[in-house]
Amino acid sequence: MIAYTRTPRPDAARELGVELVDLPMLLAESDAVTLHVPLESSTRHLIGEPDLRAMKSSAILINTARGAVVDQEAMIRAINEEWIVGVALWTFSTSSPCRRTTRCGRWIRRVCS
Q1: Which of 7, 16, 33, 101 is most buried, with most CB under 10 Å away?
Q2: Is there a single domain that holds both residue 106 and residue 68?
């Protein structure tokens, strides 16, 4: 298992059998990426278009953090243009894009139904 953290603790990672890597490597290598960070100025849009494009086309992004940690517009493009296979969300960064059917395209069927 690989992981990225802003506050690495190599001893703890080693004890858990986790290899610490940088964010670009984590995104490129992972089948599933989960986000567990507070929403701060440094984490707003932590995952944006370049990050989503760097992920495997078969990857899924799981955001258990606040919605604004992921650039919502880029996330919708990532689904519609098949940069990644899917997302699982705890919240949206703004009101649900599922209500704006003209912008979501097939993303609605995959995430909101």
Answers
A1: 33
A2: yes
Please say whether the dihedral angle defined by the alpha carbons of residues 58, 29, 5 and 2, taken in this order, is positive or negative. Answer: positive
State pLDDT tens for residues 16-73: 999 999 999 999 999 999 999 888 999 899 999 999 999 999 999 998 888 889 998 8
Question: Which domain range does residue 47 map to?
Answer: 31-112
Are 45 and 98 found together in one domain? yes
Phi, psi of 3 (to 5 degrees): -150, 155
Residues 79 and 98 both lie in one domain = yes
Q: Which amino acid is at 111?
A: V
Report yes or no on whether pTM surpasses 0.85.
no
Residues 96 and 46 in one domain: yes
